[in-house]
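In this section we walk through a basic example: taking a raw amino acid sequence and producing a predicted 3D structure, encoded as discrete structure tokens. The instruction is simple. Fold the sequence below.
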Amino acid sequence: MTTEELMNAKIACPETGIEIHKSICAICDPQHCGLDLYIKDGKIIKVEGNREHPNNEGSLCAKGASTRQYVYSERRLKTPMKRVGKRGEGKFQPISWEEAMDILVQKLNGCKEKYGPESVMFACGFSKFFRPYLKRLSLLFGSPNYFTEGGVCSTANTIAQKLVFGTGTGADTANAACILVWSRNPYYTGVGDGKGLTKAIERGAKLIVVDPRITPTTKKADIHLRLRPGTDGALALGMANVIIRENLIDREFVENYTHGYPQFKEYVMTFPPERAAQITGVSPDLICCAARMYARAKGAAIMASASPVVHHTNGVQNYRAIYSLAGLTGNFNRSGGQILALPCFMAPGLFENQCAEFDTPVTWEELPPRVGLERFPVWGDTADDDAQGMAIPDQILSGKPYPLKAILAFGFNYRMYPDPEKYLQSLLKLDFLAGTDLFMTDTLRYMDLILPACSSVERSELHFYGSHIMLSQPAIQPLYQSRSDSDIIIDLAQRLGLKDPLFDGGFDACVNYMLEPSGITADELRNYPNAMPVPENIMKFVPHEHFKSCGFHTPSGKLEFWSEVLAKYPNREGFDPLPVYREPKRSPLSTPDLYHEYDLVFDTGSRKPMLVHSRMYGLPWVNVMLPRGTTCDINPADAKARGINDGDRVRVSTPEGSIEVIAELTETSLPGVVHLFHGNRKADVNRLIPGGYCDPISGFPGFKSSLCRVEKVKEGKADE
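The resulting token sequence is shown next.
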């Protein structure tokens, strides 16, 4: 081939001057996927999946394939800026990093001196790699009010698991004979998990999928349980009824290692499959078949989701009922069931580390109470990471139990919360707002100080992948004046005078501390651009049936069907010690009068494979795949009853308001349920959910089971 032909084909070789640099995509999957970036003259000209990366093994979704457009977007922030107009007016003046950091130090220390360090909030949105650094900064500053998007994402799942198991778990899909996938679609968001699921199916594992939708995952299922959104707990209790009645329980495990089984059994006997079917819409026969398939398998794993099950006003109790199935069948800390890993950041680790010691340098007892603990006390009992961001607007507005005066927000989006307008108006009451991001977002428009962050291909990130560990390297230099979030945090810590030896030592000192027990160093990791295999001599697994010698990290020391944590709050509605099923606060059964006016179940937050939250809207490649703009999925039968045709503009209304979108008629949507996609600021579905519509235990909003009305709009143009 000639040099011209090699260049046209973008072949990496000396003749073209094109080099392949290894990096990671941090757009969606928290574990991230490996990238092969073809670099010419310091610029990315082609993107492929890295075949040697342990997570994606070369595969790449539409989001990762759009990396060039994401990185080189015209919307990228180029320089630090300070506000010169009114908040929200969009008038900013470029300034130097030196001036920006001086302002930041002055404002944060000023609030600390006047109101106390707890008056300053440190918020983490996306990306997530810098969480340990930001949390350490917050706690060393003296503020307990570090919070993340986990307050509306995954933490409630962890709370439910801790109430049952005393710890978080993962699904051992590699060894499971049966996998119960509960409201999760890894083929859209989670390439690594999707590949693991495919491998399990290919070796003969049975697959049960619980999801109201038809998805690529449900199409692979042996049994698909299409339930009404928000009725997960009733379905799990119906399955538990079959398992107990047909004596499919692991009797030795239940009798010796569980707490509250007699009470749980008595309650479950009130949920025969016929009753569960009336609530969920799933046939009694399917419930029985699923229960038997799961219970009879020699190794059955529950592949849970981060948020769909807990985005209901009964979410924690729903998940407690689901995880109780593992307790009944003894599928805990055993091959093919729910397995444990060493604690570490973002992904399971298989070696000793000091991640927890790094991000929590002081105990919570040394600090004032975090935001939200009075309203959501179980959060404090079980969620050891952050404050509950759902409670922030009320505390800002009330000033109780102490005032909140400033926020430093990294990749934070107020639109991720229900009733986002109230959330924004509360933030505007603060004395000082500062934020970082790659792009100018609606949230940054109201900031007093803006700092430009760089993307994952322009920085270093530390990641664990089970038997592998990776310290990614910048494939290109940070564009414009953008900086890595971790570098911003470390620089700020030094300027604040916190006198922390790790922050003062810089990025490598922090990484080396986290890895210290393993003997691995940052310099060593840089020799492994595809991720370093963890040496066999330091690999450490949590032994199977570890509970036999160490018990469970619960008040009773056993797996708890009856939660002693929840039993501490007998006067709080919804804090039942048993996983009692309660209807969503708005549903056809709990609010029949409201259902008469708003006659469809309203499920928000569904995803398309090329989108994740708000990050991909506006990219040309993605827009090509969204020719209709913002849509809602509605079953053809529901559409016909309302005179709606495919492609019609419709108004979706709740008691809180309405938005206008394009109707997309599809059998993938369960009759009686409307699915709306989130993340588009011009058709913000979160505006249609009231701020107080939440789970009383976790505080999680009921995004996925409210009620709505859909009507055809005759004239005008849909929101886009």
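Looking at the output, two observations stand out. DSSP finds 25 helices and 27 strands in the chain. The domain at 169-339 is CATH 3.40.228.10 (Dimethylsulfoxide Reductase; domain 2). In the next section we compare this with other chains.
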